[in-house]
């Protein structure tokens, strides 16, 4: 690559294959949620997504290690990652917006308050409260809700701690202290997967002891909508950080050239910030 030129990647099959894999996964997921069948299709889609991601990222790593990327490519990667994070912010903003809309507007209207209080005619005996343990109509609500000061608080401390350990690892990489980077990144990965395990325990408790399910009225729906998608992002983030750890062990990255690591750190810090919002507005308030 001559000085001042811009690297143009060769024609890639990964975007179309990634789209097909995502479509397969989402169709299978929809079938499971709506009809209770389609788990094989969903599993096939998940495996296809993981395969495309792995092979696509492999090609990008090879291009980077070959010295094909220059400062302009670095700016392009940074802009792309920034817009991706922005799209994720909007993604979760929609879910938080649904939660706030229900709590701030819909429930008071059903209780006869405000300009649209006529909605109270639907269920005259309805009383607005949150969490909504007794939904109107024939919908059964949850039996109880989680105390925020038990498993949710533990997971909050874990994620906040993981952001700190990741920052230490990042600073170590910028200073050329690879052992520091390796050790603290390993701690971060372990904390991430620990969060996932505890979230699984919480879901088991929700279904079997608290009656919090997807069918448990608006509280159950919003609970799993927010915590479920966040949990998926934690799994993705922990997997990405695992790949970063493997690359560190293989001698990849340099103090002045490590945007792959930096992008993973951006993503992980975003996931942590979203969890703080979840902890406050799903569990505490």
Secondary structure layout:
Blueprint: H1 14-35, H2 39-65, H3 71-110, H4 151-174, H5 178-210, H6 217-249, H7 259-284
Helix pairs in contact: 1-2, 3-6, 3-7, 4-5, 4-7, 5-6, 6-7
Family: Belongs to the cytochrome c oxidase subunit 3 family.
EC number: 7.1.1.9
Transmembrane segments: 14-34, 40-61, 82-102, 181-201, 234-253, 265-284
Task: Give a nutshell description of this structure.
This protein has 285 residues and is mostly helical.
Descriptive notes:
The chain has 285 residues and is mostly helical. It folds into two domains: 13-68, Helix Hairpins, CATH 1.10.287.70; 76-284, Cytochrome c oxidase, subunit III, four-helix bundle (Four Helix Bundle (Hemerythrin (Met), subunit A), Up-down Bundle), CATH 1.20.120.80. It has seven helices and no strands. It has helices at residues 14-35, 39-65, 71-110, 151-174, 178-210, 217-249, 259-284. Helix 6 (217-249) packs antiparallel against helix 7 (259-284). The longest helix is centred in the N-terminal third of the chain and has 40 residues, at 71-110. It is elongated, with a radius of gyration of 22 Å. It is an enzyme of class 7 (translocase).
Q: Would you identify the CATH H-level superfamily of the largest domain?
A: Cytochrome c oxidase, subunit III, four-helix bundle
The CATH topology annotation of the largest domain reads as Four Helix Bundle (Hemerythrin (Met), subunit A)
What low-confidence regions span 5 or more consecutive residues with pLDDT below 50?
A: none
**Rg, Cα atoms, Å:** 22 Å
**What's the number of domains?**
2
- The beta-strand count equals 0
